[in-house]
DNA sequence: CTGTGTGCAAAGCATTTGCACTATG
DNA sequence: CATAGTGCAAATGCTTTGCACACAG
């Protein structure tokens, strides 16, 4: 519940109500560092708040995505995944996605270089394509440590 | 049909047969610069090759993805999209994705800076996470020119 | 010939929608 | 109280599977 009041305000600012399902979902997301699918979230929540409906989870996540509170994570597994958006630059990160097991690993390295690159890219793209950049996404695909050990060259 | 023989070999190398559906799909992909969904591809193909089945399109695209011939494009619209993988650095590009209309715009700018950034990132990540990097993906999200003109601050 | 690839129809699942009901502000 | 939000069940729509047949090598 830390920051509950802050969230409450952020919802209000956006003509949205502060409800129990929203609080529970937000609370769960703020406690985990993982990229949860809608189903995951729903499953984790049923114990804490048995009455919640899957539909509500879907709608809440989409709402929070539209409001910019959460980020969709690209998982090529046919499920939508979300994570709370980074607060400031301290927690900014990107993903390593394993082509073997589908695992998603966070990394927070070389942030400075990235910022410079992104900044420059943003300027060029905005100028050239009249595109208003709101966000960016960088991901590396490959094989994680575990899979490298296990798999030799199967599948 | 340019490069048909090359593709034929690439399939053979991978213990896969060179068939009419595969040729037609590959041909279509090499003619377009767009990010086509499986349905798009299927639809475009029915005129050229009426007998083709949706299932075959799905299977062929997944096969070509596994073989590294095509790239999955992140579209947050619940449809799988593919594009032929870039040949060499000349055609390397990334995407601008419009949060308004969902359009995907290619850009090929500041490739040099990107390569440097990616290279450095790759080294660090490989060392730190024992992750074998095979590919990367960079995308910018925002509002495209059209949507900026149309929408003021609705939805 | 042998086994990979294809098409079709039937599942499988994640996500969305319609609607009556509840609870926030 | 007015209306945004919720839950359920039904409907969508993309993707996968099972199977008999076709065709590449």
Characterize the structure shown:
2 copies of one chain form a homodimer. With 155 residues, the first copy, chain A, is of the alpha+beta class. Helix content of chain A is 46%, strand content 20%. The first copy, chain A, has 6 helices and 6 strands, in the order ααβααββββαβα. In chain A, strands 1-3-2 form a 3-stranded antiparallel β-sheet. Chain A starts with a helix and ends in a 5-residue tail after the last helix. The mean pLDDT of chain A is 88. Chain A binds chain B through residues 72, 74, 76, 96, 98-99, 105, 107, 109-110, 113-114, 117, 120-122, 124-125, 128-145, 148, and chain B through 72, 74, 76, 96, 98-99, 105, 107, 109-110, 113-114, 117, 120-122, 124-125, 128-145, 148. Chain A binds a DNA duplex (25 and 25 nucleotides) through α2 and α4.
Order of helices and strands of chain A: HHEHHEEEEHEH
Task: Please give the order of strands in the largest beta sheet of chain A.
Answer: 1-3-2
- The share of residues in extended strands of chain A comes to 15-25%
Low-confidence stretches of chain A: none
Helix content of chain A: 40-55%
* Overall 3D form of chain A: globular
What is the overall pLDDT average of chain A? 88
Cα radius of gyration of chain A in angstroms: 18 Å
- Briefly note the structural class of the backbone of chain A: alpha+beta
Largest sheet of chain A: 3 strands, antiparallel
Largest interface: A-B, 37 and 37 residues
Query: Number of DSSP helices of chain A?
Result: 6
Tell me the total number of β-strands of chain A. Answer: 6
Oligomeric status of the shown chains? homodimer
* End-to-end separation of chain A: 45 Å
